[in-house]
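Course assignment 3, question 2. Fill in each field.
Student: A.L.
Task: Predict the tertiary structure for the chain below.
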Amino acid sequence: MIPTKDRPTGLLQAVNSALAALPAGGEIIVVDDGCTIPAVDVLALLAGPGLRVVNNPGPHGPSGARNHGVFQAKQSIIFFLDDDDALLPDYCQTILDIIADLPASVGYGFSAAFVKLPSGQDRYDGKTIDSGILVDDTPLDERLTGLGTGFWIKREVFFKVGGLDPALHVNEDTELSVRLAAAEVMPYYHNRPGVLIFHDPVRHAKDHKSITRSADAAMRALGFEYILRKHDAFLQDHPAFRRKFMLRVIKYRSRARKVDGWNEFCSSLRPTLENRVIWAHGWVWLRLSIALRKRKRKRA
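Answer field:
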């Protein structure tokens, strides 16, 4: 399933790779999320019995488009692919063969990736663990992943946990991963790369930047604040990871020079000692970092 928004060059590359990786009886669903050049026109010269282009009626955005794509899907296993990346040819079939032998408690999975650098070299990007099921005592950090990392999920599991949250336009994959962990759905990790991620601005120069790469600091901060509010109770049992999220909020608020709303955000969380400490730390750090940025601008 490939959602797309104004990235025709990347979309052609992604769909061609999906056609090459498509298992027998599979389908490719491209979700047009309001492209200026309709995806059906971009893909007019491509053909395949399993290729379908559907228009997203809304809500728009990465979550809404993916939710619509999964709703349209006929198969029980959904592989996600971004419209500026490429699947490796044997990945989907390899995973389907593995899933056949996994217990029913495993509901989703992801893989390592190759990152295509501007130099043309491929860099391995993966976890320092073997392929296998990430059981309940696996640290939450290891179980969370992005949707661009060879991510797959059972369709029934996707709907059972509520799909992607359309309120989020960044970090929607992080929020879904937290929700899957809270629902005690176990993931499978494959340490062989399943996808090729392109970090080459020249290759896709005419395409719009991805939302992840173009999102400003204020939007990122709001995304993490939303996740912390929504999953406050669950994250109390994962203090190290929760602290990491809080520090990201502080980092992005600092970059955005945004103090307004900090007190309201912290007061919306449980009144624990740790929350009070983080509130004080964040308030001081935000004030200090913003003052330093202002001083640097004056010197410049």
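Instructor remarks: The chain has two domains: 2-207, 216-299. The two ends are 48 Å apart (CA to CA).
Grade: pending
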